[in-house]
């Protein structure tokens, strides 16, 4: 159907000011008007009359559907094109309600705009409507309503209603929108259309009186899809995505057949190997869990693609909640977080959103983002736990343990933030601060008790060895504080030390040559590669507390733990290493460890981590465990 332009605008070029369109009683024979020659006007009055006749002829001959309305919205005159559009003789349309003829009351916004024009509070309204043609097909039209110049004789105020057929343009725009809003590979709705539908679904579910008022989302990512692209090429990858899309669509159709909701299901490709299944008016988490499991089951079956037999799995994040108070951004953030959990938990599974787990994640994020500024603000402090000789019960050294006095979360132990500091690199700056403060404190104790110096043990993360010049940092701090190198012990975890080569091994060797003691922390929980002990510059083994727990009771001993500890102690001594047992909590444990030759112990039996002044009290009391 050809698109036709709207005519009859009050301000259109060539219109005589003050000209009027015909009233109901002034219809002319349009054929006669348009074919008979008119005599030249002989004066101003005849000029005006001729112009009026021309406009009446144009109105009735126009192929654009037009009607003249009064301020009540009733038809005063309609041209043949308008009658053809609505399937009624124009003469029978007089006094008809224009809004009913053109469906202007279909939506509240359009109806309000129309009433504003009728009342004279607006100069124009324009809207698009889908009308039923008398021949049975639908016609997309653009409806325009605007005021006309008042009738010269009666002064009656009138309006022009024009209806332009825009079916061709609408169809073209619809095709262009479909291309714009759909993924060319899978033919599924793309990210833009998905978010458009999601926003509409949230708005509808929040305010519609019917329906469940809930919304659900399965957000999935194919596991290992990059390997398919890298090894078989993007063409095979695209075929796989298309096949996956078909299976997802069938899963959604099957779910809708089992229990259709008012809003239905939407399957979309959000980009790459990410897909989403939106469930409008969901009925609860069980519905979403069933859908997610059906997707996993469908994707487990191999794909046959042009002679290639491929198997893929997916990780799915599942979110289901009430629509009220939910935003599209918030829902997608929750789905993305849950998808990450599914991958973190082992992939090829679906995971349901857990508010408590998410709160923990948000806390981690808040801590991570404030770690670096916290060092500058002085929010960290050190506590010290004694390392006690099992032979004489005297404190030989202390381990420095960092605490974060967080203004919001209170005092945090290292297990709450050290891993975060290693992830974002803040461990380098924090570790340097800990090393400096611990060395200053150890130097103060040395000056206060010169006869029996106390060494300090500081934990070092492997990232400090890689991302900073640890050797230079240690040398500078020792020089600045005046602490002898033999009073400093650096602890690295077994997993960080074992297998060390290149720069880490060189750094450890340089520190050892400097006189600094190197200790392997939590020994027995990692590689336990004994061959490395003879090649690494290690002075101390710190046995993990899991071995010591087997020494808790004489009535229920664990012979295996004791045999392992005894063998490790003997091996360490043969290699010239000393052994420290962690997590010593009872005198019975301490005695059994002493009997098998363990050198020092650390744990709550002797003291919990305490402030520096409490350590000073231990030293003043003779550095005995009971002090």
From TrEMBL:
CDD domains linked: EAL, GGDEF, PAS
The EAL domain, residue ranges: 364-623
Annotated spans, Disordered: 1-49
Family annotation (Gene3D superfamilies): 3.30.70.270, EAL domain, PAS domain
One Pfam family this sequence matches: GGDEF
Superkingdom of source: Bacteria
Protein name: GGDEF domain-containing protein
């Amino acid at each position: 159907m050809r698109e036709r332009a709207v005519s009859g605008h009050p301000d259109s070029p060539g219109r005589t000011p003050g000209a009027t369109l015909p009233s109901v009683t002034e219809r002319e024979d349009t054929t006669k008007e348009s074919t008979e020659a008119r005599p030249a006007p002989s004066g101003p009055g005849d000029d005006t009359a001729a112009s009026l006749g021309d406009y009446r002829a144009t109105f009735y001959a126009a192929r654009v559907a037009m009607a003249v309305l009064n301020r009540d919205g009733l038809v005063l005159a309609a041209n043949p094109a308008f009658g053809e559009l609505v399937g009624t003789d124009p003469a029978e349309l007089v006094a008809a309600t224009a809004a009913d003829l053109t469906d202007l009351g279909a939506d509240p916004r359009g109806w309000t705009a129309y009433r504003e024009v009728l009342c004279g509070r607006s100069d124009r309204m324009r809207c698009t409507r889908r009308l039923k043609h008398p021949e049975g097909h639908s016609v997309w039209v653009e409806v325009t309503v605007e005021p006309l110049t008042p009738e010269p004789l009666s002064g009656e105020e009138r309006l022009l209603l024009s209806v332009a057929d825009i079916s061709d343009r609408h169809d073209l725009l619809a095709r262009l929108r479909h291309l714009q809003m759909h993924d060319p590979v899978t033919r599924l709705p793309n990210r833009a259309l998905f978010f458009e539908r999601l926003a509409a679904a949230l708005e509808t579910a929040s305010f519609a009186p019917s329906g469940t008022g809930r919304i659900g989302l399965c957000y999935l990512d194919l596991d290992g899809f990059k390997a398919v692209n890298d090894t078989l090429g993007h063409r095979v990858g695209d075929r796989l995505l298309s096949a996956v899309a078909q299976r997802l669509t069938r899963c959604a159709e099957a779910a809708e057949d089992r229990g259709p909701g008012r809003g239905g299901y939407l399957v979309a490709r959000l980009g790459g190997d990410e897909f989403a299944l939106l469930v409008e008016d969901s009925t609860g988490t069980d519905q979403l869990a069933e859908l997610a499991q059906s997707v996993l089951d469908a994707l487990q079956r191999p794909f046959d693609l042009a002679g290639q037999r491929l198997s893929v799995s997916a990780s799915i994040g599942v979110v289901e909640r009430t629509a009220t108070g939910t935003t599209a951004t918030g829902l997608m953030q929750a789905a993305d977080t849950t998808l990450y959990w599914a991958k973190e938990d082992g992939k090829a599974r679906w995971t349901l959103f857990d508010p408590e787990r998410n709160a923990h994640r948000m806390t981690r994020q808040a801590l991570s983002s404030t770690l670096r500024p916290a060092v500058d603000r002085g929010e960290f402090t050190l506590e010290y736990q004694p390392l006690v000789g099992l032979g004489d019960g005297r404190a030989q050294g202390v381990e420095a343990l960092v605490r974060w006095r967080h203004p919001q979360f209170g005092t945090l132990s290292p297990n709450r933030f050290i891993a975060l500091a290693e992830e974002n690199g803040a461990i380098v700056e924090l570790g340097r601060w800990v090393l400096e403060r611990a060395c200053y404190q150890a130097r103060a104790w040395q000056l206060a008790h010169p006869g029996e110096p106390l060494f300090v043990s500081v934990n070092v993360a492997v990232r400090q060895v890689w991302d900073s010049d640890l050797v230079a940092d240690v040398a500078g701090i020792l020089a600045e504080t005046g602490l002898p190198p033999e009073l400093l012990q650096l602890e690295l975890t077994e997993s960080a030390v074992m297998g060390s080569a290149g720069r880490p091994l060189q750094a450890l060797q340089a520190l050892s040559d400097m006189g600094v003691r190197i200790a392997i922390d939590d020994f027995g929980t990692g590689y336990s590669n004994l061959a490395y002990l003879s090649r690494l510059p290690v002075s101390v083994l710190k046995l993990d507390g899991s071995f010591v727990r087997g020494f808790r009771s004489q009535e229920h001993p664990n012979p295996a733990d004791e045999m392992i500890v005894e063998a490790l102690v003997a091996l360490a001594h043969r290699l010239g290493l000393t052994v420290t047992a962690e997590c010593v909590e009872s005198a019975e444990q301490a005695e059994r460890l002493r009997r098998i030759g363990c050198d020092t112990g650390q744990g709550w039996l002797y003291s919990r981590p305490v402030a520096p002044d409490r350590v000073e009290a231990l030293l003043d009391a003779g550095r005995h465990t009971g002090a």
